[in-house]
Amino acid sequence: MKDVIVIGAGPSGSFAAHRLAKAGFSVDLLEEHREVGKPVECTGLVSQRVLQYVRTKSIAGTVRGANIFFPSGKSLHIEKEDRTIVLFRDSFDKDVAAMAIGSGSNIRINARAISVKEHDDHVTVRFRENGNLKEEDARIAVGADGINSIVRRDVYGLRQKHVVSTLQYDMASRIEDEDSVNVYLGSKYTHGFFGWAVPGGDIIRVGTGSYRSSARQYMDNLSVRFGENRVLAITGAGIPIRMAEFLNTRRTVLVGDAGGIVKPLSGGGIYTGIFSSDVASKYISEALEDDRPEKILRKYDREIRSTIGKELKKDAIVQSIYSRISDRSFDRIYNMISSEKIIDVINRSGDIDYPSTVIIKVLIRNPGILYSMWK
Ligand SMILES: Cc1cc2nc3c(=O)[nH]c(=O)nc-3n(C[C@H](O)[C@H](O)[C@H](O)COP(=O)(O)OP(=O)(O)OC[C@H]3O[C@@H](n4cnc5c(N)ncnc54)[C@H](O)[C@@H]3O)c2cc1C
Question: For the residues of 100-164, what is the DSSP string, one character each?
Answer without folding.
Answer: HHHTT-EEESSEEEEEEEE-SS-EEEEEEETTEEEEEEEEEEEE---TT-HHIIIII------EE
